[in-house]
Amino acid sequence: MSSNLEPAKVQTRMQRFWDSDVWWSFKSHKSAVGAAIVLALVIITAFLAPVLSPQNPYDLAALELWNAELPPIWIEGGQMPFLLGTDVQGRDILSGILYGTRISIIIGIASVAVSLFVGIGLGLIAGYYGGWIDNVLMRIGDVLLSIPTVLVAILVSSVVQQFLPPAFREAGLAAVLVFAIAMYSWVQYARVVRAQTMVERRKEYVMASRLVGTPARRMMFNHILPNTLTPIFVAATLNFGLAILIEATLSFLGVGMPPNQPSLGTLIRVGNQYLFSGSWWIVLFPSIQLCILVVAVNMLGDWLRDALNPKLR
Length: 313
Known about the structure:
The protein is an all-alpha fold. The protein has one domain (47-64, 73-312): MetI-like fold (Orthogonal Bundle), CATH 1.10.3720.10. Helix content is 71%, strand content 0%. The protein starts with a helix and ends in a 6-residue tail after the last helix. It comes from Sulfitobacter undariae. Its main location: membrane. Keywords: Cell membrane, Membrane, Transmembrane, Transmembrane helix, Transport. The chain crosses the membrane at residues 32-52, 103-128, 140-160, 172-193, 228-253, 280-304.
């Protein structure tokens, strides 16, 4: 009996989604649909990089120096299969972009997930209990927000790398970047959740749950948290694009991913050194990919903010 009900429940939920205002808003918003299609193509091609790429840019044995600085295929001197040309090491630009995009997306998703976990937890605690706990957590957040984002990330990344053993510094750079970005981003989620929690805890259903002896942990996560998810979804979407930009900035400044495991920021940093020598394609195409990725994410975030805002319905 229960096994027959499960597909019906899933179908009912899907039908509710197709009939919801959010889906109607998405279908009628041409820029959101276009951004979603572009973002989906970028993510799919990035994670299918081993299948689509003509070369593994991480395999040094596959790099041939006589193929260095080949121009794109439509320019005289270009060769197949290097559609977008090669860099000074003979690395295929298209392969580097696909693999680098995958690294940037993974770091962006991981940093948003970590900052969400920390920010939601601390925001619930600060808003529910208040008092000195709220003051301490929010003052820590104020200190972090008073420092520019990139400086916080550089400081955290540099300090953490110094504590890692030399053998693990290069291998653990991705985790260090995630930690460095999350150290700043959690404050925004904590403030949003704290504000919503302070409103929700004064409502009748919360007071009634307290009277019947509901534990504080269950109260926060089962009753209050679901009512704070709408602004969290919007903030997470917008911060995903910001996290990718921060990672690209750190890699461009030399404190991010190494050249043998390049992200989009690393590719731009390497290509920038040869911009005025005539090899413009080395920096141009990774920059275009980064712009497309971030703009698509931000356009979706802007639509989601408008779609979930009850004042605009």
